[in-house]
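INPUT
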Amino acid sequence: MNALASIDSEGSVALGEPVDVTIENVVKAFDDTPALHGVSLDVKAGELVALLGPSGSGKTTLLRILAGLDAPTAGRVLFGGEDALGLAVQDRNIGFVFQHYALFRHMTVFDNIAFGLTVRPRAQRPSKADIRRRVLGLIDLVQLNGLDKRYPTQLSGGQRQRVALARALAIEPRVLLLDEPFGALDAQVRKDLRRWLREIHDRTGHTTFFVTHDQEEALELADRVVVMSKGRIEQVGSADDIYDSPASPFVFGFIGESSLLPVTVADGAAVLDGVPTGLSAPGAAAGPATLGFRPHDVVLVEDDGPALRGRIIAERRHGARRRLELEVGREHHRAEIDVEVGAPRPEGGRIAFRPERWRIFPPR
Amino acid sequence: MTDVTHGAPVAAPRAFVSPATERRVVRIVLVLVAIAFLAIFLFLPLISVFYEAFRAGFSAFLRAVTERETASAIRLTLLVAAFSVPANLVFGVAAAWAIAKYEFKGKSLLITLIDLPFSISPVTSGLIYVLMFGAQGYIGPVLADHGIKIIFAVPGIVLATIFVTFPFIARELIPIMQAQGSQDEEAALSLGASGLKTFFRVALPNVKWALLYGVLLCNARAMGEFGAVSVVSGHIRGKTNTMPLQVEILYNEYNYGAAFAVASLLALLALFTLIVKSVLEWRYADEIAATRRH
Ligand SMILES: Nc1ncnc2c1ncn2[C@@H]1O[C@H](COP(=O)(O)OP(=O)(O)O)[C@@H](O)[C@H]1O
Ligand SMILES: [Mg+2]
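OUTPUT
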């Protein structure tokens, strides 16, 4: 608490008032290739939202549109109920943290963080002493004390990213946008910074968009996770929602290891290539659907009743268990299951199994 | 189990020699060839320029370079550089910016065109200007009607010099600007900086060493240019002769001492350029490395 409290007690600094952000039907096309197909999202003031999706799913594009670095082809963006698209990037009052830091390499840590304050028009510029106090307060907040005279090249990746965050926070942004901020860092540093970022957010309370392709990072850090794929939002929800009730085969597959099989729903149960699987599909409409299960949620069964049947085509050690790669059904769909290491290898590699937990997804 | 044969102790291997290392003799020969080449084609001529310049003593040197027509040539050279270097500074930054930061049709054509002055003979460049602005040229007569004289006058010399030295600054800037991308500028804009402040406080400092280097090279060439300037100058004594032209005139008049005196000034300019460049590279090695690295 003390870092910010000390800035506040100077009386010269109020944090940028966090605002609601409303994204309405935002479409973005680059030379006819669509990158966003009508994205809509409501984010409450002070919320930390993770945009999660594979590379190329449109996360950066959405973030740049929010920042004003790109203009959408169609749609609206509101900050606190006011149209934001009419505002130039300079006037949007957003803090943008780039994946590759984009620190000013000819400036010290101090000057980097002070930049947003020193470039203000004279009338709005704080006094030199105020700027100094605020920058030192931010250096304290991001735990870089004593490094204020260093140049960016003299810092580690994690330290650079913290400078980038402090620089973005210095302008008291209404919205904080982070584009894969930890993407270039190694695993341990990522984990530390993740916790640290959450703490900073809890103290400062900015409305924050956090882009990542790392599901663990998103699920651990965010109040809400927005899963994106191919320029569309697949699902919005808490980490529990996303993990326990994935809305689409894509989310199911992206959130953890999975096998997906094309099935048909008939009489409330899933049928694979005309063979009953014995897996119920409560509530699913009859017709084509996708069956999803996780490799570790599978038990082997006797080959006499309804089950999934496959032939082993490869196997490898997977942690404490053994992973089998199978061709399943008559049409040789690929699937993976985990079995005990000591499990006997069946005759001819033929195997029957049954997921203990599974999901049936309606077609798109 | 692998079979292991126990036999007589194996002789110690010869000292390891990296396969990429040549023999000592080869190395020495290569170094000697390089030094001999430099000595014959660089140091010897350079030293003889200064030797000839000062052969008749320092006062003779001073007299030669302060003689009326020579002094006028020096002034004109400085004037030409004072116009063409800033002009190319603006053109070069603008062209490099456009090429490095934007995508547009005809970009590769523009890059090729920037290199044109490098690949075209300077004499041809000069002739193009005569064709354009000369008394029999396309727009020369029109300009003459308005009392504007370009060929055989200072404006023509400045134009030809700008043309010849155009690539230096742009060529230095383009690769470094391309490598750096636009992220720093975007960061500055997102922090509230105006376009001008972003340019002067972020974009320009990011390329300042490349820019300075380009300016040095551009200046050296602007002052030393002979071919193109020779065509458009008209060699009017005390009026349209630059230093290189003056050297030639003095030389043709068998005034060797004076010719070498002026030539030594040009050689000094070259040495000065090299020294400033080396000092900069040494003094700011860290920062230069920082701007190059990404
Ligand atoms: N400046 C651009 N010009 C053309 N296509 C682009 C541009 N930026 C992004 N794209 C395309 O838009 C899609 C989404 O990209 P992006 O938003 O960067 O994805 P992500 O950040 O999720 O990896 C990609 O297919 C990408 O190729
Ligand atoms: Mg991205």
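end of record. Chain A has a mean pLDDT of 89.
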